[in-house]
């Protein structure tokens, strides 16, 4: 398998709008080639009789079923809030967004 070239890394960097130095292009070419090689080795191990899975162990849903149960009214939930607005907790703005 041919390795990833410096030009291919430069092309990917342009697509991602990244400005990379010549040293970074060489460094990333080596790293990406190692990653591609590792993926190829994993592909060699997987065989036709092994079904694809998302987890090595069987999983079962351990969450309880959703049930409608009595709950607090909005007024009760907000009764201890230091500030509220439109039946919601009002908190200080942190990101400069509305």
Task: Tell me what you see in this structure.
With 98 residues, the protein is mainly α. Helix content is 40%, strand content 4%. It contains 3 helices and 2 strands, in the order αααββ. It has helices at residues 6-15, 22-45, 74-78, and strands at residues 84-85, 88-89. It has a two-stranded antiparallel ribbon. A hairpin with a 2-residue loop joins β1 (84-85) and β2 (88-89). α1 (6-15) packs across α2 (22-45). It is flat. The chain starts with 5 loop residues before the first helix and ends in a 9-residue tail after the last strand.
Structural class: mainly alpha
Strand order of the largest sheet: 1-2
Secondary-structure element order, as H and E? HHHEE
Q: How many H/I helical runs? A: 3
List its salient traits.
mainly alpha; 4% strand; two-stranded antiparallel sheet; 98 residues; flat; single chain; 3 helices
Secondary-structure map:
Elements: H1 6-15, H2 22-45, H3 74-78, E1 84-85, E2 88-89
Antiparallel strand pairs: 1-2
Helix pairs in contact: 1-2
Short description:
The protein is mostly helical and 98 residues long. The protein has helices at residues 6-15, 22-45, 74-78; strands at 84-85, 88-89.
């Amino acid at each position: 398998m041919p390795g990833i070239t410096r030009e291919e890394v430069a092309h990917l960097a342009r697509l991602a709008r990244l400005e990379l130095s010549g040293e970074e292009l060489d460094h990333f070419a080596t790293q990406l080639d190692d990653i591609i090689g590792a993926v190829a080795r994993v592909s060699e191990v997987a065989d036709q009789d092994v079904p694809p899975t998302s987890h090595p162990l069987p999983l079962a849903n351990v969450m309880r079923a959703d049930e409608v149960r009595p709950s607090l009214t909005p007024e009760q939930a907000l009764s201890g809030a230091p500030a509220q607005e439109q039946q919601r907790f009002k908190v200080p703005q942190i990101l400069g967004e509305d």
